[in-house]
Amino acid sequence: MADTKREIERKYEGSPTGGDPALPDLTRVPGVSGVLDKGVADLDATYYDTADQRLAAASLTLRRRTGGDDAGWHLKLPVSDGVRDEIRAPLSDTVPHSLSALVRSRVREAELVPVVRLLSARDVRHLVDDSGALLAEVSVDRVRAERLSGGAGVAEWTEIEVELADDGDPAFLDQVEKKLRKAGLERSSSKSKLAKALSDTDTANAANAANAANAANAANATNAAKKRVKAAPADRAPRTAGDHVLAYLRTQRDAIVELDPAVRRDLYDSVHSMRVATRRMRSAFRSYGRILDRAVTDPIGEELKWLAGELGVGRDQEVLTERLTTALDGLPGALVTGPVRDRLRTWSQARGDGSRRHLIAVLDGGRYLDLLAALDGVVTGPPLLKAAAGDPSKEIAKAVRKDFAKVSALVAQVLDLAPGADRDLAMHEARKKAKRTRYAAEAATPALRGPAAGLVKSMKSLQSLLGDHQDSVMAREALRDLADQAHAAGESAFTYGLLYGREERRAAAVEAAFPGEWESIGGGSGI
Fold first, then answer.
1. Is the dihedral of CA 13, 14, 16, 20 positive or negative?
2. Fewer beta carbons under 10 A from the terminal one: N or C of the chain?
3. 449 CB-near residues (< 8 Å, 6+ apart)
4. If you average pLDDT over residues 310-332, what whole number do you get?
5. Residue 78: CB atoms within 10 Å
6. pLDDT at 516
7. What pLDDT is attached to residue 311?
């Protein structure tokens, strides 16, 4: 079983001319009443990655460590600068599935192999307050790195690490840093020990290679590598219509890959965020069909639709249950007749049972990995059409205006229909087209700036209004289902009918506000 620890830490090294770093007197740091010497721990850690270092490229670290008080497997996922989530699993001979699954969107079918071994002598001190409570752990780490694959380099260094105590105030680290800086220490230039080990052992390997090879050939290889980097499309500012669309697609592809571990961990809003990224990418394929060949992107779009559907199995049920529960909480107790809360809970669980397990099975499946590979292919070798080389202010604007025209046509249809099932369906279709236009305008914003940003805002507002209406439609369907179940069980259906009536009024209010909302947009995209 894996458990998680939020790790907030900073690393320091000596100045370039100051030699190994040494700890100053930390008892004078505000809030510190004592510095407790906890002795020296010998740590032995083997870091795992793919042969081409995909985890390191994403600032992820996976290690098997013995020694100290937390021996076992550790996967560190970046949260923000200096903040990582450390997922732990018990010591074993092979990488635990609970951890390998969390890096699958990066690793895919590649093998995880040992890349670096770090041997550290960790001299630990605890900074405590006047009650003896831990404020932070400070360690002086003397490290030896040995390259296990991709070379045979060795590197040694000493660094200081300050890790905030659980639930501590990050501002305390600023106080410690002031003292360390006064002593001549600087923030480490490497984000992690592994990053430094890979960098330093690469340097050692390069030096060994230089001794064995012709210096001129090495220089030529270096220059060629620099030219390749400069020529990479992802590294230059967007200029053409194709550049802008690809930049947007790349952002969505990256979001899907990066959100994968969070979805597996069931972190708040992660499923919704990944679902939105899939929809944005699919919408971009459809909106920018003059720029990207739809013969290539349409099949990928269908797979994105599949993934969005799988992500929505549990999410839609959660949203609907939350809406009904909130509505029920707003009723006076005298109007709640029968076991309404118990029935709502049972109904929700029955519909949601297995959805979490099913989603994890989807993320572990080959179809999902094939989709990730296809997304990689479309951003690295895009199927660009002639219009991709065109002026973004023309080509992208043309696509956005086309999407907006579809929204306008659907709105006109909605305004001509009387309240009822046909109007409900037309409003739902208008919502979907508003969402697509919003995403097209998002992709267009870097090129078209203000007008596109304004359209994003107006389409988001329209989408929100229409979304509330659709949620009401779905809530009324669910309430009818619940009322039928209650009636069949001999229970009162009064409360369900009351909630149904309130949802009807809520939908009517949206329909009444809709013409004014559309009028405020001005009937034009502004692009």
1. negative
2. N
3. none
4. 91
5. 16
6. 93
7. 93
Cα(499)–Cα(476) distance, integer angstroms: 8
Output the pLDDT for position 209. Answer: 42
DSSP 145-156: EEE-SS---EEE
Pairwise CA distance, residues 163 & 172, whole Å: 10
User: What is the Cα Rg of the chain in Å?
Assistant: 29
In angstroms, rounded to a whole number, what is the distance separating the alpha carbons of residues 108 and 70?
28
Cβ contact 126:38 at 8 Å: yes
pLDDT given at position 214: 40
d(CA 95, CA 110): 14
For residue 301, which of 293, 312, 313, 290 has the smallest C-alpha distance? 293
Structure tokens at 13: 């090294």
Rounded to the nearest angstrom, the gap between the alpha carbon of residue 54 and the centroid of all alpha carbons in its chain is 17
CA distance 460 to 436: 10
- Amino acid at residue number 363: L
- The half-sphere exposure of 309 on its side-chain side, counting CA atoms within 13 A, is 6
Q: Is 60 helix (H, G, I), strand (E, B) or coil?
A: coil
Reported as a single tens digit per residue, the pLDDT across 98-139 is: 999 999 999 999 999 999 999 999 999 999 999 999 999 999
Give Cβ neighbours of residue 96 (< 8 Å, ≥ 6 apart).
2, 73, 89, 90
Contact 24, 176 (CB under 8 A): no
Q: What is the pLDDT of residue 231?
A: 32
For residues 87 and 77, the answer to whether their CB atoms sit within 8 Å is yes
Contact at 8 Å (CB) between 348 and 321? yes
Beta-carbon contacts of 65 under 8 Å, excluding residues fewer than 6 positions away, are 43, 44, 45, 46, 71, 72, 73, 74
SS3 of residue 9 by DSSP: strand
- Global pTM value: 0.86
pLDDT at residue 353, rounded to an integer: 62
> Which of 459, 453, 458 has its CA nearest to residue 437?
459
Contact assessment for residue 278 and residue 370, using Cβ atoms and an 8 Å cutoff: no
Other CB atoms within a 10 A radius of the CB of residue 386 amount to 10
pLDDT of residue 223: 41
Q: Exposure pattern of 391-415 as b/e (b: 16+ CB <10 Å)?
A: ebeebbbebbbebbebbbebbebbe
Q: Write out the DSSP string of 395-463.
A: HHHHHHHHHHHHHHHHHHHHHHSPSSHHHHHHHHHHHHHHHHHHHHHHHHHHHH-HHHHHHHHHHHHHH
d(CA 42, CA 23): 19
End-to-end CA distance of the chain, in Å?
54
Q: Which residue, 238, 267, 264, is CA-closest to 251?
A: 238
d(CA 369, CA 503): 41
